[in-house]
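The aim of this short unit is practical: by the end, you should be able to scan a pair of folded records and say something sensible about each. We start with the first protein, listed as its amino acid sequence and then its structure tokens.
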Amino acid sequence: MKALRIVFVLLLIALLAGAACWFRTHEESAPLTRAWGNVDTRQISLAFEASGRILELLPEEGAPVKAGEMIGKLDTEALRIERDRAQAELERALAQASLSREGYRAEDIEAQRAQTLALQSRFELARRTYVRQKELARANVSSQQNLDDAELSLEASRRELKASEAQLHALEAGLRPQEVAAAEAASRSARAAVASLDYQIEKASVLIAPADGIIRTRLAEPGDMASPARTIYQLSIVSPKWIRTYVTENQLGLVKEGAEAVISTDTIGEVKARVAWISSTAEFTPKTVQTAELRTALVYEVRLEADDPENRLRLGQPVTVDFIPGN
């Protein structure tokens, strides 16, 4: 019985030693074109460009979204009221600018000319009355009061005539260039105000997915207040995905930017990738590298880009990278 136990222990030791030898041989025989890494987590923090109360948020956490898809919007009632006011101001400014370009109407000029002629007749009558009263006063036929009244009437008629003549001259000359320019500038300012409100309503108050992805986190609900500084959604980019891996100095000569590679895991098939970037600085291997042999070695970070429209690669998933030599 004791002999059987000894034999069993010896067989167990031999089995363990053989397994260790096999694993060591297998690890050491890994090709230089192979590396291990992880799928990088790439996400976008989405926020409204404008501030306001959230009216609607469509996708829930885990929902896929497409680039250009509307995923949320703000209440824009106050902005629409302000836009109506700005539109009315624009129409008024445009009308004023049109009047400035065209000048005064001929009817207005003719009416002012007729008024000026009437005032000229009134002035002439006042002048004759004053002359007559002056002669009568010299002959002691009329009182000094009548002469004073005639003089006051003459001065009043003269002032009215001068004012009317000045108004007629202004109408005939039209508006000054500076006045026309001011009216044009006012119309442009009013147009810009309407355009600004249109942008706030149609663009800044709407949340659009910038890329294909999956909603990873939803951080607000309808009724909450939004601002440009508040993240509403965190969107994980589905494709392309970035794979971060590390190669040794011996492998570095076999890996080139733009070269092709194959990504694989234990659960999915192969996914084609491209080497996008190779670090120029060596570093100690991060703890996430799977092989114990490399953990104390100096390595170079390599990033690969893989198209994954079917979302087979999961964010943070460990992967095996096989570089294709000679390309």
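Turning to the second protein, read its sequence before its tokens, just as you did above.
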Amino acid sequence: MAYKNVVLVGAGNIGRIILRGLEDSSQFNITVLSRKESSAVFPDSVNVWKTDYSKSDLEAAFTGQDVVISALGALGFTEQRKLVDAAVQSGVKRFLPSEFSCNSQNGTVIELLPLFQQKADIIQYLKSKESTGLTWTSLVTSLLFDWGLENGFLGYDISSRTATIWDDGNKKFTLTNEGHLSKAVVSVLQRPNETKNQILYIASVETSQNEILNAFETVTGCKWSIIRTTTEEQVTEARMKLSKGDFDGALTLVRATSYSNLPGLKSNYAKGFKVANDILGLEWANVEDTVRTVVSK
């Protein structure tokens, strides 16, 4: 039986995408967990529970809920164990940890982003709680494609028609569109038996930096300027920035989880893993169509 009562924890970029999908499906009673001091505003259609993240308050918030979805950002990764414990005590049936990004099970990803070890640890903690009746699903999306094109995160500056290309630009990787992420979450909740206690890899496109660049040049009807760089240059500079307290370095290392040529980095989920698109009813997207949609905004 599909789940009905859902708590979403975290209202940042990922949380907003997931919330939109849950709302659009019109199938769930949605509660958003928000810190007491937060000024975030939510749609009238959702319940808002202001919390201090204490044990008793979390358990009260989760009572009567079927699912807890954690979309906490990096600063909230350490809170997830408390969420799991409260979910167990409150009889929650399914927990989705704050994955929704690059693969925390990959050693090279952990070397680039040591903070992601906390994500990997939560998966192990969830496995240890299976005997209590709490099930879990981890959704691994890699980086967000349309979101990262629109805001320039992926290195394509639409206004200046400039692309930053790592190495030769031909390395293949997978990326996921916002709509596929939100649909995947809904599909997991609709398919509890097929998705329980699993790490599911999803993707919208299997592509390369050069293929994305070609799509931009086709859609915009002009040649783009290219800034050439290498994995070594990007990773070295990023680590230097981080050592000086510059968080921009971390953003570069996130990009490196898709673009870099570091050994052992399995960033093409279509080749390295069994992609769960079929299980979740997700169709593959077209790179040029996605670029066209982004440019038209």
